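Hi everyone,

Forwarding the result from last night's run.
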Amino acid sequence: MVSVRTEPSRVTRKLSIVVAATAIVWAACTPKDDKSKGDPAAASSGGAASSGSGPFAVGSPPDALLEAVKTTDLTKPEVRAALPARLKELAPDGKQPRAASVMLRAVANGDAKAGAALGCELLDRLPTLPAKDPDLQLFVDSALLAVANGKGTCVEAVKKRLGIDRCLQSIRCTKDGARIGLGAATDQREPLCTAEDMAKEVTRDLARTKEQLLEDKPTYQTERFAFAALRAANAVPDEMDKAHARRQYVLKQADKPECGMGVPLGTPCHCDEAALRDQVCRNDTTTIAFSFCRIEVNDAKKELGNVVMSTPP
C-alpha cells in the first residue's frame, strides 16, 4: 500500500498564523494581577510615589494627600524623591497646607541643601503675608525653616516674609538664647538672636513629628523664621542691626520728675525706659520726640541722653 503525504493548504497555514498572532496580542493587552489594586495602604506606599502614581504624583487629586502623609514613611528615598515636584504644584493655591508642611520638612531633614533650594522656590510660589489661613502660614514657615536649615541664599524672597516691623520683639533673645514671647514683659534691652540661637530653634522645630504638625492647633512664627533664614545666610539688613544696637545704648536720664503734664517744656525728666528704647529702635534720627519726651542719640558714644519734657508730636 502506498502512503500519501498531504501538505497543508495555503489557507490552513494563513489561518494558523492569524490565530497565533491574535493570542500574542491578547496576552499583551490582558492586565496582570495587581495585588495592590483596591488596597488603600498600597496606594499611599513608597512604591506608588516612586512609580509616579498615587497621592504624591503630580496631577493627582489632593484629597487623598493628608491620609497618605499620615500612613507613609516619608523618609524612604524613593518616597522623598517624589515630594519636591508635588510641593511645587501645591504651593500656588496652598492646597493641603498641613500635609505639604510635613512633606517639605521631610525633604529638608533628608537633605539640607536640597531642602533650602526647594524652600526658596516655594517662597516665590506661596502667597505673601498675611495669609488668611493659619494652616497655609504653617506651609510658609516650613519653607523658611528649610531655607534656614540649608543656609539658602534667596535673601530677597525671605525679606518679603519678614514684614515691615524691624523692631520685632520675636527676633530678640535672652542671654540664654530663649526667645522673647509675644506680649512678654521687656525692658527693650535684649539683643537680637544670634545665628547660633536661631540654628538651635530651627533644628528643634524641624524635629516636630508629623503627628504634632497634623493634629496640634496651628501656630506659626513667620517673622522669626524669616529672621533665622537671614541669620543663617549672614544677610540680616544693616539697618536692622543698627536699629537694635541703638536700642541697647547706655541711657542717662533724670530719676524725676516723670515727663508729663505740669512739667515745664525743656525740663530734664524721666521717661519710661522701655518706651524710650523702643522709639530709638524705630527712628534713625539723633533727636527723637514721642509722648511727652524728647531724647538725643549719640551714635559715636553709643549713649542715649538729654531727656527733657516735650510737647507730644
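The first strand starts at residue 250 and ends at 251.

Cheers,
N.
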